[in-house]
Design a protein that fits this description.
14 helices; four-stranded antiparallel β-sheet; single chain; IPNS-like_FE2OG_OXY; globular; Oxoglu/Fe-dep_dioxygenase_dom; oxidoreductase activity; Fe2OG dioxygenase domain-containing protein; binds fe (ii) ion; eight-stranded mixed β-sheet; binds 2-oxoglutaric acid; 442 residues
Length: 442
Amino acid sequence: MAAPAAAPPPAAAKAANAPVISLANFEERKHEIAQQLFKAASEVGFFYITDHGIPQEEIDRAFATGINFLDREKEFKTQWPFNPDSYLGYRGPDELETVTGNRLWEWFSVGRYGTGGYNYHAQQFEGEEWPQELGAEFRQVALSFQERTHDIALKILRALWISLDRDEAELADPFDLDSPENPSFMAWNKYPALTPEQIEGLKNGKGKLPPRLHAHADMDVLTILFNRVGDVGLEIAPGKDSENLDEIIEDVGNIWNHVPVAKEWIPLDPRPGCITVNVGDGLTRWTDGVFKSTYHRVRAPTKGDPTGERYSIPYFVNPRLNYVMQGPEKRWGPITGFDILSKTGNAYAARRNSPDKSWQEAAYTDEIAELNAATAEGRADLLAKNGVTRKQRDSVVGNGNGVQASAVGAARAAPLPRAPHAPRTLRRSALAGAPLRMARAF
Ligand SMILES: O=C(O)CCC(=O)C(=O)O
Ligand SMILES: [Fe+2]
């Protein structure tokens, strides 16, 4: 008879092990920084950066600027609707709820060209669209903050390249901030304050809320994330330590189709003076899997947590649209900056054929079942209202294989609603030969 399985260690016993890495005196210290970053990016996929050079007032101004947009009424915000090929624009809870049942999150993103749509036939952005109503300051702050953050990203990428014995000079072209093909962009996430009923539910232990931002992996190359001290909730699920994937992945077929949930989530709270940085799927591909794109989520507040709004600013770094990325070992096929980002690019197909699923799979587990039970009814109603059956969604998103882009595909094929974050299938039995669920969700 088989011995009973050993009880897993309690989540609290695990430390995220995300190191704090200083960028001070970068040019002199870059080889030392490279070593530290290599370890963090290959083992955890998340790390904190300090001595990054952006004064706190600038970060505060960037938050205030986005909040000034996101706290306005829906009719104002929806003038800049989300474009799934550029990933720019506003996404609100009405739209997100249709697909995920989640009303606890909204988002607005801008690139170097405002929220301008991207025309993938012409391979160019379609002009500038900034919310002029917010004044010139909005545009100026968004541009200067992106510039500052881009500098940090480039330093990190250069050091990571050094750590791989790759030529750091190789990065200047793909990450040229001023290139008309530069698709890197910043976003503001807003997680609304809890309602009085939700607060009451927390107090009496009866209200179970879904995550504010469900489990996902970013599909970009690198994400530089600004969070405010005290704003708890970000959690990561590094998967490489799991030994028995069969036991931690459950077939929970559900209409999020694919949002995985890990058994163990490790908090990654903001640290004073630090930025949180994570590897995206693009970098995993580009390094033949050396650097790990790790699942993360923003959990709902629990008893004792702040219940007000939570905001964050991710800056998603991608190479220019026509730049072709491939790892030296060619483990995955080549993809362009555009592919990585867009629903019409090739990354979706490339990911489907990926040979390696282990890293991401290991981050999956079964908590989604609870979530389903909590909201299944509401979601089913909404889907029915939109004339969407699960089968339809699957056929559009390619069996939920993953990339956020595929979710967005569902969004675009009218009358299907837009999906927010990368969908994926958890059907364990189908995993052999199944796509790598490198899927972002930004
Ligand atoms: O708000 C956070 O802390 C995380 C945001 C995030 O993961 C994302 O926007 O991709
Ligand atoms: Fe993320």
